[in-house]
Write a structure and sequence with these properties.
Elements: E1 5-10, E2 18-23, H1 26-44, H2 55-64, E3 67-74, E4 79-83, H3 85-100
Antiparallel strand pairs: 1-2, 1-3, 3-4
């Protein structure tokens, strides 16, 4: 089932650091958060050929945002359900766990 998902991020205290991204599925939204972290790592380590990280590193990156959350569309009630930072972290953990089983 496709669940339209909107990620809401406020990177700093400044309100003008707010942004949003929307995706057709929760999985695509979660992949984008992971991609944001990997891009951040590449910017911090431009000469590194390989960069390793674990879930604690990724969670720490997420915790650096002033605020992060997402809205997931629930067709049964025709409304968006809000989810917080901890929900996002658990979805990322489950997503990476599934990838590691492949």
């Amino acid at each position: 089932m496709t669940q339209h998902t909107i990620i809401l991020i406020q990177r700093k205290k400044a309100k003008n650091s707010r942004t949003f991204m929307d995706f057709n599925t929760v999985a695509l939204a979660i992949e984008e958060i992971i991609r944001l972290y990997e891009n951040f790592l590449q910017e911090q380590n431009p000469n590194a050929r390989n960069i390793n990280y674990d879930i604690a590193d990724l969670n720490a990156y997420i915790d650096r945002f002033e605020d992060i959350g997402c809205l997931v569309y629930e067709p049964g009630i025709q409304a968006y359900i809000p989810h917080d930072r901890e929900w996002i972290k658990s979805r990322i953990f489950n997503h990476l766990k599934k990838l590691s089983r492949r």
